[in-house]
Amino acid sequence: MKVKQHIPNPLRFTLQDFAKRFPNNNACLEHLKEKRFPGGITYCAKCKQERKHHRVTGRPAYACDYCGKMISPMAGTIFEKSSTSLRTWFYAMYLMGSTRCGISAKQIQRETGVTYKTAWRMFNQIRSLLSDGDLQLEGATVEVDETYFGGKRKYGTGRPMRGDKTKIPIVGLVQRGGKVVARVIQGVTADELTFVIKKHVVPGSVIYTDEYPSYERSKTLKGSDGKSLGYKHYQIRHKARVYVDGDIHTNSIDGFWSVIKRGIGGVYHSVSPEYLQTLTCPPFLVQS
Ligand SMILES: [Zn+2]
Predict the structure, then answer these.
(1) Among 8, 120, 211, 272, which residue carries the largest CB count within 10 Å?
(2) Does this model's pTM top 0.70?
(3) Are 194 and 165 in contact (CB under 8 A)?
(4) How much distance in Å is there from the Cα of 279 to the middle of ligand 1?
(5) What separation in Å is there between the alpha carbon of 53 and the centre of ligand 1?
(6) How far is the CA of 80 from the centre of ligand 1 (A)?
């Protein structure tokens, strides 16, 4: 059987797209306002009623037309109280988002011109936001697979066995043509795997995995109301050297692992367990 190699590509948003969309701090602030207050700021907390707002000259804020009470779209975000310009923040986010997380704080320093200390702080804050723990995959076709990072294997290759305690298991879920969730788990037990599946996969989805028995519970999973979640589960028989059987394959998630492992090898060199969750973080876009 011929195996089609699947290499995921990020949906392209080029540097030129970025420069056009976010030419200056004002454009970034407008964007932030639209994200936080879709359709504009319409309510004044002081007047306690709907009011029109206007941009305050010289400050990153908007004010009530009637009483002048100011509101900043940066309040309560990582940008609040930062002396770094909003556009520099946006540029750092663009760099991290467009390079599959494979960019270091050092590179952010070089690209944006901030000090290393500032770059490191921005890097960590952006990274912490990228790990959206509650992301729900919107697509109805999901591939699930686990892999292992770090440490040395005590017993040869294949799935780690007892004694391979330094290996960190990670489960990854890819919505074909869409987002990826990757989570560090305690162990590759049916309980751990099904917890993650229930959390991130929309009821009624089709789930593709390999033949690992811990996934078999997927098709009988129930929601908190006791009703079936209606997952359809298909397994590809890798042991029988079958890699693609019609729609049944795990090529998207396999491609994701190879990108992540290359990224970790190239940029982070080695990773301690507590950082791994944030490194595998970004709900990250692939093409089917
Ligand atoms: Zn007001």
Answers:
(1) 8
(2) no
(3) no
(4) 43
(5) 9
(6) 22
If you measure from the C-alpha of residue 81 to the centroid of ligand 1, how many angstroms do you get, rounded to a whole number?
Answer: 24
State the Cα torsion 35-107-121-87 to the nearest 10°. -30
The CA 16 to ligand 1 mean position distance, Å, reads 39
Question: Quick one: average pLDDT of 246-267?
Answer: 74
CB-CB neighbours of 5 under 10 Å: 8
- C-alpha dihedral sign at 238, 244, 246, 252: positive
41 CA → ligand 1 middle, Å: 11
Q: Quote the CA–CA distance of 147 and 188 in Å, as a whole number.
A: 9
Distance from Cα 172 to the centre of ligand 1, integer Å: 48
Question: What percentage of residues in the chain have a pLDDT greater than 90?
Answer: 29
Contact (CB, 8 A) for 116 and 105: yes
Residue 55 C-alpha to ligand 1 middle, in angstroms?
14
Phi, psi (deg, nearest 5) at residue 233: -120, 125
Compute, in angstroms, the gap from residue 31 CA to the centroid of ligand 1: 23
Q: Which two tokens stand for residue 219?
A: 């098709």
> CB-hemisphere CA count at 13 Å for 2?
1
What band does 161 get if pLDDT is binned at 50, 70 and 90?
Answer: low
Report phi then psi at 62, rounded to 5: -120, 155
User: Would you state the pLDDT for residue 265?
Assistant: 55
Kindly give the distance from the C-alpha atom of residue 24 to the centroid of ligand 1, in angstroms, as a whole number.
Answer: 28
CA–centroid distance, residue 73 to ligand 1 (Å): 16
- Gap from CA of 84 to ligand 1 centroid (Å): 29
What mean pLDDT is predicted for residues 10-33? 84
Classified as helix, coil or strand, 62 is strand
Task: Tell me how far apart the alpha carbons of residues 54 and 70 are, in angstroms, rounded to a whole number.
Answer: 9
